[in-house]
Amino acid sequence: MFKKIFPILVVLVNAFFLAYLLIPTPVLKDLPNSVKSDEPGDTVQMENVTAFYTNLSRTEVINFYRSAYTSPILIRLNYPPEYAKTIFRDTMQSYYLEEFSIPFKESLYINGYEWENDVFTKPEKRAANKMIFKGIEYKSKITIKVIPTSIPIRLLNFFIIEASLVGLFYLYRNFKKNNAH
């Protein structure tokens, strides 16, 4: 019975994962109620990076990007703010850093810097870090970085993993058969 169902199951699982891998990732819209930065390092100098000045809260920012990433599989990761220097640039200010990962497809890093909550600056000195862009004061600066993968790379990774799993299955089956005596 299992030998008859197994090939059908493999075809169905492969069809599901191939459809998942071939569906394009969402095109991100600009952060609402925010002003897009045109400062150096926030635009074309860094590939796939965009920054916004905003008065939105962390929850509002994260909820906006969460709603933009409609995927059957989504992983949300929270990192220490110090990691922003590795992911973006070594001079990046950060209060929080989160990642939305669509496995095998794309990652979106969201770095938020709220000058009033800067953990690396003493409270009495935080006013010196106010976010002023084009004469207007903002509570935070949000910098996002998208790390996409191409469809050929997605498919290659999928088939490598699938071949590895099949190989492990046969190794395990042969091991069990040889040690059953």
How would you characterize this protein structure?
With 181 residues, the protein is an alpha+beta fold. It has a domain at 30-149. Helix content is 35%, strand content 25%. The chain has four helices and eight strands. The chain has helices at 2-22, 58-68, 84-87, 151-178, and strands at 34-36, 49-54, 75-79, 96-102, 106-114, 131-133, 136-138, 140-148. The strands form two sheets. It has a six-stranded antiparallel beta sheet with strand order 1-2-8-5-4-3, covered by helices on one side. Strand 4 (96-102) and strand 5 (106-114) form a beta hairpin. Helix 1 packs antiparallel against helix 4 (151-178). The protein is elongated and about 75 Å long. The two termini are 25 Å apart.
Features:
6-stranded antiparallel beta sheet, single chain, alpha+beta, 181 residues, two-stranded antiparallel ribbon
Biggest sheet character = 6 strands, antiparallel
The helix content, as a percent range, equals 25-40%
What structural class results from the helix and strand content? alpha+beta
User: How widely separated are the two ends?
Assistant: 25 Å
Please mark out the parts with pLDDT under 50 across 5 or more consecutive residues, or reply none.
none
Strand sequence of the main sheet, in spatial order?
A: 1-2-8-5-4-3
**In one word, what is the shape?**
elongated
Beta content: 15-25%
- Helix/strand order, N-terminal first: HEEHEHEEEEEH
What does the average pLDDT come to? 88
Please, how many helices?
4
- Radius of gyration equals 23 Å
Oligomerization = single chain
Strand tally is: 8
In brief, what are we looking at here?
The protein is of the alpha+beta class and 181 residues long. It has helices spanning 2-22, 58-68, 84-87, 151-178; strands spanning 34-36, 49-54, 75-79, 96-102, 106-114, 131-133, 136-138, 140-148.
